[in-house]
Specification:
One of its GO terms (cellular component) is ribosome. Part of the 30S ribosomal subunit. The chain is an alpha+beta fold. Helix content is 43%, strand content 29%. Strand 2 (16-24) and strand 3 form a beta hairpin.
């Protein structure tokens, strides 16, 4: 059975934390630390972490990065709305 992945999100008032776990045989295995945006370039840090995992298919890496970007955009949009 192919591994599945889970994005872990900490949706905080002033920052967004994102980490990725691998789900295998019912176990949740951390693949990355939490990266906090906008303090760090979270998308690029996750990209770099995924590049060190050769067992993850390129397609899966792209899906995880796209999901990360979507979540970051949603968080930014919500911050812009509350700032008005």
């Amino acid at each position: 059975m192919a591994p599945r992945f889970k994005l872990n999100i900490l949706w905080l008032e002033n920052e967004l934390g994102i980490a990725i776990d691998q789900i295998q045989a019912g176990e949740q295995i951390p693949l990355t630390d939490y990266f906090f945006w906008p303090k760090s370039d979270t998308w690029d840090q996750i990209r770099q972490e995924l590049e060190t995992k050769p067992w993850i298919l390129t397609k899966e890496k792209a899906q995880l990065l796209n999901a990360t970007a979507t979540i970051m955009n949603e968080w930014q949009n919500s911050m812009n709305k509350t700032a008005k």
